[in-house]
Amino acid sequence: EGRRLAKLANAPSRTRDGVEIKLLANAESATDVAMARARGADGVGLYRTEFLFLRHKGLPSEEEQFVAYRDLVMGMGGLPVTIRTLDLGADKADAAGIALRGEDNPALGVRGVRLSLRHPAVFTTQIRAILRAACYGPMRVLVPMITQPDELIAVRTLFKLARQELKQEGIDLPEKLPLGAMIEVPAAAITVRALLEHADFLAIGTNDLAQYVLAADRGNDALENVYNPLHPALLRLICHVISAGRRVGKSVSLCGEIGGDVNFTALLLALGLGEFSMHPSQILQVRDRLGELDRSELRRLAPQLIRAHTHEQVEALLATLDSALP
Ligand code: PEP
Ligand code: MG
């Protein structure tokens, strides 16, 4: 089995009916990057920069961040990388050197872009490091916890200001740097068309989207029966976001845990997903699974999937497919 999968490292990522799918890596460390390349990832779909802040136990300097981001881009050897701006909340910010008032509900608190926009000096240091690193290879910037367009507009403004500053300092700048929104807050998913007027691309974060849609803490084991990514409410939102992106020709990827879980590959193809981002250890399994699946057949199932009343119905629909596998 291991040897059979290893042979897939250089194979294209294609469904049985020949549709090319992008397989991207969620990568933080040099080890992840090496694994992503060894397994033939099409790029990095999610680089969680908070790891850098937490590992550091304090604020990393512009230079330290620049080196980390540059090494990431160069390590991917010309493949595109997606850097996510800081996604810390009150539960983790102190460790990173940002002093915050305690919050009763950190998951519903000053987290992600909300935190970054309240600490413009910290955020601008990160933005400068990103802009400088973007000269070393293709890069995109992803903003976490977006709820409404004004947040994305504010981030774009900070990027513009940082560009002017760097230009005055005579530092090289990338020509363009796509700015995208994580879709992980239900309001953002529902009103995604408004966000698409300001976002160059989208990445669906199903770990948080499921947590907020189902009102179930993603880390609470006692809620495993509630935190079910097959809930039709979540499927409808995912489908809505993918279709909205497709309508305006903007890229939509998905980078939650289910993106790398072969039990969800058929479902996500059915909902129209064309870019999966996952831990690099999952890439070969997902590529293998894609080869078993017929995308056009799955797409015909989408209306039934999103009209399902319960996750049991969704499971039953998916099971009819599995019995039809060769
Ligand atoms: C998500 O929320 O699905 C996601 C990919 O981001 P994180 O797990 O870092 O919150
Ligand atoms: Mg998230």
From TrEMBL:
<keyword id="KW-0460">Magnesium</keyword>
<keyword id="KW-0813">Transport</keyword>
<keyword id="KW-0963">Cytoplasm</keyword>
<feature type="domain" description="PEP-utilising enzyme C-terminal">
    <location>
        <begin position="4"/>
        <end position="292"/>
    </location>
</feature>
<comment type="similarity">
    <text>Belongs to the PEP-utilizing enzyme family.</text>
</comment>
<keyword id="KW-0479">Metal-binding</keyword>
<keyword id="KW-0175">Coiled coil</keyword>
<keyword id="KW-0808">Transferase</keyword>
<keyword id="KW-0598">Phosphotransferase system</keyword>
<comment type="function">
    <text>General (non sugar-specific) component of the phosphoenolpyruvate-dependent sugar phosphotransferase system (sugar PTS). This major carbohydrate active-transport system catalyzes the phosphorylation of incoming sugar substrates concomitantly with their translocation across the cell membrane. Enzyme I transfers the phosphoryl group from phosphoenolpyruvate (PEP) to the phosphoryl carrier protein (HPr).</text>
</comment>
<protein>
    <recommendedName>
        <fullName>Phosphoenolpyruvate-protein phosphotransferase</fullName>
        <ecNumber>2.7.3.9</ecNumber>
    </recommendedName>
</protein>
<dbReference type="GO" id="GO:0008965">
    <property type="term" value="F:phosphoenolpyruvate-protein phosphotransferase activity"/>
</dbReference>
<keyword id="KW-0762">Sugar transport</keyword>
<keyword id="KW-0418">Kinase</keyword>
